[in-house]
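Changelog excerpt

This revision adds worked examples to the README so contributors can see how folded entries look when concatenated. The first example is reproduced verbatim below.
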Amino acid sequence: MAIFGFITGYLIPFILVLSLLVFVHEMGHYLVGRWSGIRVTAFSIGFGPELIGFNDKHGTRWKISAIPLGGYVKFWGDEDASSRPDFDGLGHLTEAERAQTLGGAKLWKRAATVAAGPIANFLLAIVIFAVLFGVYGRSVSDPVVSEVRADSAAAAAGILPGDRLVALDGSAIKTFDDVRRYVSIRPETLVTVTIERNGQRQDIPLVPKRTELTDQFGNKVEMGLIGVVTNEQSGNFRRVQYTPIEAVKEGVIETGQIISGTFRYIGNLVTGRMKADQLGGPVRVAQASGQMATLGIAAVIQLAAVLSVSIGLLNLMPVPVLDGGHLVFYAIEAIRGKPLGAGAQEIAFRIGLAMVLSLMVFATWNDISNLIG
């Protein structure tokens, strides 16, 4: 029964969510590649042995493969699923045939085709958030303090109940959630809080404390806190509804905040302000998918939007075998006026593959350690 519960509660939601995001990502590559005149030989959801598939009239093999941890589009002239050029094979093609391969297409077409995958993920996130905001609106509250927790950064800095927080590091804030979002990714980092008290504004410097919390599912989450609370009376709790245009705007803003927050989080890892065990791999994503499924379809859809942004950013990392690595190669080619040699690219792809596999092993080990611990 435990295994059945894991499959239905965690594994199936995870596979469904991930497969959707992978499909959108690869469809971005596929559509722009086809538009650029590049032939596509395979479109796969998953890796490894094929489970089911069919050929379309253009010669593309559409398939679902056994390992549901990604996917790929294989273009004509690629040596493998990482879009590594088959240098030997390309040398035997005519000029017209080379133009139909990814490696032989014009530089701007290659760059557009590669970048289209992550861009598709970002666009999907914007659409999802826009739909959620358009349908459900958003619960907001004013950034007015009703309580200051003892021994907190806010208490030490002199913030008082009744203060309205109007800006953080000079950037205006509108809701209490803006405060939480901003300080949560800035533990142990100096933040200047602008408050309004009795009609007068003043700047108060403080440092959010790095704090480990437990969420409603029992997961440990590390973030920065300043120790202020609002309530229904002070915060004027309400639900804001958006027009379609406003919903799209909010979707763009939300996606941008996730992107900037991700970069800030990576910076925190590098500087040691957050621990690396917060990194999540496939196991944690599966766990989160199952947990969100218990909260309803809206929660699952919102998680899909966040993961879509994460997939887009991950693929833009400047690592060979990822989209970002290909874009780095293309940038070097644009500067040099010619591509890197086959030998240099082969070495880079091997290093990139080792880096990706190492990161996956590390993240999965973190997941398992956190579950056991």
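The second example, added in the same revision:
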Amino acid sequence: MTDASFETSSELPAPVPPAPVPLLAPREGVPPVVADPRALAETVAAFAAGAGPVAVDAERASGYRYGQRAYLIQLRRAGAGSALVDPAACPDLSELGAAIVDAEWVLHAASQDLPCLAEVGMVPRRIFDTELAGRLAAFPRVGLGAMVESVLGFSLEKGHSAVDWSTRPLPEPWLRYAALDVEVLIELRNELEDILGEQGKLDWALQEFAAIAAAPPPSPRVDPWRRTSGLHRVRRRRQLAIVRSLWLARDAIARHKDVSPGRVIPDTAIVEAALAGPVSVAALLALPGFTGRDSRRQAGVWLAAIEEARALPEVELPMSTLPHEGPPPARAWTDKDPAAAERLTAAKTAVAAIADEHTLPTENLLAPDYVRRLAWAPPTVPTSDAVGDVLRVFGARPWQIALTAPALSGAFLRLAAHAANGTSTA
């Protein structure tokens, strides 16, 4: 065989991976929805008698209903099969939670589902988050469908992910979709555990999972109205007061009607009204976003909210920005504290290099907020131990500290030495 034949063979195309196998129906069929005390008691007994991890998922009605409560909860466990539980009909699921509390709960994007599960009395002690596992294992796409396809070779139908799960009765295709979401979740968990183990990242993942399970409920947002989309267009404090007043009026209506606030009036309507400051119903209804029948019916409410904000004394107007703890925005560091700006650049470079070395997203290696806070106010003598102590107070896990503290310490000490010698690090 000639050298040329070797070159030709080396250029052969890579084998095409097999097409994913569609998952069309659960193995045992679509289970009946658990919607009464007797069915719930049977489900509790079945899952208590099951073995191994429990796959758990929840469906909300985001964009349709007020809040983020669950309208369907799916579970699967060896020996118990799958269950679909209606938390609207069975609002207290604490007995079900207690029946599986000693098991590991397998969720995908756990931080999204844990709050609504806690609302119905289901709180895990241990979890395995397949989305976070995928991030740590450096998968380019970590949605459930993409992970199931790339790891297990199955394709999931995702056409019902954004439907109104408060609909009753739930259509059979939706229930089939929901049951399939937990059908292979435990198999996915097992494969990801092996992958993380081969990469030397399993202990890192377990620390992350433990931190999620132990995290307290999130604190209520300060001034949630400031999350109004398009608020950056509103510059004057009086206009901000109108945004706040309209947001609060909309929120009260949405809560009373149990609908998503955006279905009452959109954020764009609030911003347009704040900028225009209409003084009559006709002027208000001429603005974008106030064309819907319901929003027009509430025109008096919106105008009253605007007038209330317009009548506020100057001292009661909201500030242009919220006072915040910690460092100022990074874009201001060069002017406020050039040395801190240098530390931030060095810290980001160090973290990025470590993340690249271990094939990790930088934000999973160390939260950007921790990096900013550390660079703004480092220890007086930034030894590795001192840096590690600061990161631990922020909430960094031991594996993150072990990987990053020595490099961050070295970067800060080098900058300090250059500053003491009067030399540049450029």
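Reviewer comment on example two: The CA atoms of residues 157 and 177 lie 7 Å apart. The chain has 20 helices and eight strands.
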